[in-house]
Amino acid sequence: MSSCDLVDHAVTGVQGLRPYQPGKPISTLAREIGLAESAIIKLASNENPLGPSPKVNTAVAAALGEQARYPDGGTVALRERLAQHHDCKPEQITLGNGSNDVLDLIARVFLGEGRSALFSGHAFAVYPLVTQAVGAEAIVVPAEQWGHDLQAMAAAVREDTRVVWIANPNNPTGTWVGKAALYSFLQQVSAEVVVVVDEAYIEFVADADYPDSTQWLQQFPNLIVTRTFSKAYGLAGYRVGYSLSSERVADLLNRVRQPFNVNALAQLAAVTALDDQVHLQQGVELNRTEMEKMTHAFNHLGLEWIPSAGNFVSVDLGQPAMPIFAAMEQQGVITRPVANYGMPNHLRISIGLPSENDRCIQVLTQILRESS
Ligand SMILES: *Cc1c(COP(=O)(O)O)cnc(C)c1O
Q1: In whole angstroms, what is the distance from residue 264 CA to residue 213 CA?
Q2: Bond into 320 cis (ω within 30)
Q3: What spacing in Å lies between the alpha carbon of 124 and ligand 1's midpoint?
Q4: CB distance 311 to ligand 1 below 6 Å
Q5: For residues 76 and 277, what is the distance between their CA atoms, to the nearest angstrom?
Q6: pTM, entire model
Q7: Is the CB of 338 under 6 A from ligand 1?
Q8: pLDDT tens digits, residue range 241-250?
Q9: Domains of the chain, with CATH numbers?
Q10: Separation of alpha carbons 162 and 184, rounded Å
Q11: Of 41, 213, 272, 372, which is the most exposed, with the fewest CB atoms less than 10 Å away?
């Protein structure tokens, strides 16, 4: 055997990368702790507890037998439907295998060695991942009260900065930036810097001061807004996300996009999901009432939590969260520790069905009592 370690020959950015850590699948935990899968509660990945619209299930079931052919590489039907939904041109839309795929396309088009990208402390883990993978330098701007400090971020933009990643709301903090602050940021930043506003949770936001950034696409050709079907639409397993941008930027992104990156069933699921806004609103409403219930329960336990505009909430356990997370997992409740986000005492909990949330609180209460 040769002593050559191929890690030394991976490109520089990749050598220092650690893979994204997804939540443990229900089936894996069920096997580990000897419970039925139906007894496991997963509140770890911000999925929609109601699942997709029933219309999606019907449409996909009917199309199952027809999948011998490649999907439409141009995703024409879905882009036209999205253009109608957003009142923009289909040419402004770039589809991805989840919006993470689009974030990756953006990094490959605008970043590389000798360039930097900027994001906030506690920001979504995919930004450092895609930045570093292409050899660009990551500039992390300290957060303010867990949220993005846009003024500090504007001041931190360097000569070589080509992308700014902004999650609005952010995961795992749930924090969001308001209209005036974001607009002022867009005005301050040079037109040569691409500003990505990741709106994965926009459907859940109720605050009147929250900006839908697509309104500024005309004015700022360097703005890219990303959206996803994974969260409020309940299609995380299908993998569909997209960006809205100027046509010019969309053309660049499409040059590096794999032609069949969104499979046929996923395209069908997404088109169908857009047509069921009633189902979407049911999920949003459920999230609102259950979020209130959960945060009340945290108050009752004397725990601080970060106000969240998403479908998850990060709660401060006042002690390292990892052992509590592990103990909850042993009881069949999967949540998400966020120490890798620089938040060792916080636990991120997705808002589930009423019975799931009740069980989560019950288990958390019991474990906290035992650990004190
Ligand atoms: C979940 C999430 C996404 C969505 O990722 P997909 O690849 O579309 O499933 C994007 N951004 C943030 C901040 C998220 O939390």
Answers
A1: 29
A2: no
A3: 8
A4: no
A5: 21
A6: 0.96
A7: no
A8: 999 999 999 9
A9: 3-51+278-371 (3.90.1150.10), 70-275 (3.40.640.10)
A10: 18
A11: 372
